[in-house]
Amino acid sequence: MNENPTGGLRRGEFGWFDAGRRARIGIPEAVFAAGKGDAALVEMIEFALEGEGPVLVTRLDPERWGLIADRADWLAFPPIAEGEPYVTLVARPLPRTGPKRVAILAAGSSDRVMALEARAVLTALGVDSHLVLDCGVSALKRTLVALDETSDAEVYIVLAGFEGALATVVAASVAQPVIGVPTSVGYGVARGGETAMASMLASCSQGLMVMGIDNGFGAACAALRIVGTRST
């Protein structure tokens, strides 16, 4: 292994790990598990665990859990269980500090795994979150209850598939920053999240920010930039 002592880069057989990223931008590099072979996955996780800060592993197939289970004291979002498409892992989360809070609203329970990906990233950086599932606009009363429950949030992350309307409704209802995440949930012309993404991008609610399809990780990183991470 070669290491760049000034940039915090760790280089191995299968690639580089940016150990200095949190020092630069306040958010650590995550190990993206999907598409990596077993040896590459283990190598990158070992690099991440060499440091002292929080460790994130995203898009891990639960069937590969045995490869890394004993390498750290992991928190899993959702908990490791049969049938989940993927999980997000956190090791060494920072302690929660201050009143920072991010609301995560998921239009349907089918958006749960993407929502928990966002929650995992926030947990790793010590930022509290309030998750409300199944509060989409098909039953607007649920949306109103969710908005009331999360009125103290500094930022909203809103996940929705189908036509993606929840993000527009939330952005039209609150003054806080709103980050929309279109999800690949829905029938027919929902087209794997493309319709929800187009709807959010075309929203008439001013200032709605939109991530890529199913990108709960990116939404949480955007929220962390808004609430600030360096003090944590």
UniProtKB/TrEMBL annotation:
Organism encoding this protein: Ferrimicrobium acidiphilum DSM 19497
Descriptive protein name: AIR carboxylase
GO biological process, any: 'de novo' IMP biosynthetic process
InterPro entries with a match to the protein in the record: P2CMN_synthase_LarB, PurE_dom
Pfam families: AIRC
Domain PurE: 100-232
Coiled-coil zones: none
GO molecular function: hydrolase activity
NCBIfam families per the UniProt record, alphabetical: LarB (NF033503)
